[in-house]
Amino acid sequence: MEEVADVSLILSPQLLAAALVLAAFYALIAIGLNLVYGAMRLLNVAHGELVMLGGYIAYWGFARWGISPLISAVFAVAAGALLGVLLYATIIRRLFRSTRMLARVEANSLLVFFGVSVVIQNVMAVAFTADQRGFSYMDGVLTIGSVRIEENRLLALAIATVACVACALFFRYARSGMAMRAIIQQREAAALVGIDVDRINIQVFALGFGLAALAGTLVSMTAQISPFMGFPFTVSAFVIIILGGLGNLLGSILGALMLAAVEVYGAALISPSFRSILVYGVFIAALLLRPQGLLGRSIAAR
Amino acid sequence: MTRQGWQTGLVLVAATALAAALPLALGTYSLGVALDLMMWIALAESWAMFSGLSGYVSLGHAVFYGVGAYVTVLLWQVLPLWFSVPLGGLTAAALALLLGWPCLRVRGPYFVILTLGISEFIKYAVISTEAALGRNGRLLIGTPSLTVLFEAMLALAVLSMAVLQIVRSARLGAGLLAIREDEVAAEAVGINATAVKLSAFAMSAFIPGMVGGLMILRSTYFEPMQAFSPTTSFTIVTVAILGGSDTVAGPLLGSLFLVLLSELLWTRAPEVYMIILGVLLVAFVLFVPEGLVGRAGRFLRAPKPGPSSRDHRAVVIEP
User: Fold this and answer.
1) Is residue B241 within 8 angstroms of chain A, CB to CB?
2) How far apart are CA B101 and CA B204, in angstroms?
3) pLDDT by residue for chain B (319 residues), tens digit each?
4) Residues of B in contact with A296 (CB under 8 A)
5) What pTM did the predictor assign?
6) How far is CA B195 from the centre of its chain?
7) In chain B, which ranges are E strands?
8) B191 vs B171: CA distance, rounded Å
9) Which residue in the set A43, A112, A288 is minimally distant from B282, CB to CB?
10) What residue ranges do the domains of chain B occupy?
11) Residue A125 is nearest to which of B271, B281, B318, comparing CB atoms?
12) Which of A104, A288, A295 faces B317 most closely, judged by CB atoms?
């Protein structure tokens, strides 16, 4: 249990660094979730499973063949993207096949993705057992000013930040990035001006799932992994995209900073066991206090 | 009541009497399985009474189950069980009223994730409370025999089916169906949507609360992570989707299917059981959205397309 917190704790750069690292992971995960929601109105509750898979790719590569997680990260992104494309082609497309299915796409997607998530979790539990696993990679501690931080955390923060910036540039300048934003804003209008919605949907799945898998490799460098680690990340990502605005990609980064700050400072000031209560509290508050905002978008998109 | 209605009623009474005699015929293990079957029937039928009819998919019914269990555990050896278990049900219903007030304003998928979020929030709140009290799980010694628990659970299963049947044919059910099809239109024709939704939500929480109380007496050990496990909510929804959540027969058939599957696989390969359940959920949402009962009904009434066939499609979810 924590001792009574004093004011200096709030100003501690140590906590700030911890919050930044967590926020960077969250941002990567939430951007992918928000892309898939924004473009197709799908509630991907299996998103955290991709984080878990990315973590296992890094773990497996490192423990089995001594491959650096930085190299595994490339494979993880590719594997995540491939899985996203496969899932879209085999299952998700069928959710759009008739107007009647289309009218229920959000709730149906929730059930379908839940099924997918249960399958992925348990396949991994069969393959790797349900035990927690971890590996040490660059676990030396650096001292920068008054902040002490593990090298792997700093590296993960740097990679995640670069990836977020790359995403922001991609959405701003790349043709497909702009097409994704157009679909998020107005799907019908985007199709009318000649955007191939189905093709962009595939890219959205590839990008979103790839980002989550990348986040997973980074998480595995700094923490233990298990087949059932995904769900808390899914929940956090949902809190973030609701805080930052559904379909608002840069809002996701802001939301990630907010949630990470609440979690890190809440755990430091109150108690680490309060983490889940805080996350779900923010979640409920965000959903209840802005129902018209959320609904407004959902109805407008229909 | 129609002639068919009487026949169905007679069959049900006979089936109930037969089920009530099961403890005479079954061993401890088989009776435990039968208890599980009754539990899923009771849970899924009460879920269908609200979520199946209204289209508001609750992914938080585990919280009612857990609260019922918690009340029963807290009052263990304080109050007699015939009082504390129903009190658990009432507490769950009261909680549903309290939660439903803000939550039922939120529609479609937001309602789904909100119920899940609140259920998890309450789970962690109970965990923190128990930790603050210095309790790491509570053991109940001297709980009622399996036979007693089975008979009580059978009563709940029958009650739950009866409630769904009665609500379906009553004003409340018509109101819920109207809300499912089009809430704005339902309000326009004079249905008090808030009152209809709230009362149905509270009713659908009552039986799960009592089920939770009985099941904690069966397991004799209370641990909040288990009692409030979101798996319960997800399984209820899966059962209802498999069977079809529009009729009394749907959740019944879904529960039977689930318990059979779990008997075949759970002890030998729990992961494989979960994988099959996941695959089935995906397959049913995509290919059999009307559920087993709806599909069977469509085969029996095959040469009658048109608007009437829509009634038998279990439209589980309308965002």
Assistant:
1) yes
2) 15
3) 577 778 877 888 888 888 888 888 888 899 999 999 999 999 999 999 999 899 888 988 999 999 999 999 999 988 888 999 999 999 999 999 999 988 888 877 778 888 988 999 999 999 989 988 888 788 888 889 999 999 999 999 999 999 999 999 999 999 999 998 888 999 888 888 899 999 999 999 999 999 999 999 999 899 998 899 988 998 898 888 888 877 888 899 999 999 988 888 877 788 888 898 889 889 988 888 888 887 777 777 655 444 444 444 444 444 3
4) none
5) 0.84
6) 21
7) 138-139, 221-222
8) 10
9) A112
10) 16-229
11) B271
12) A104
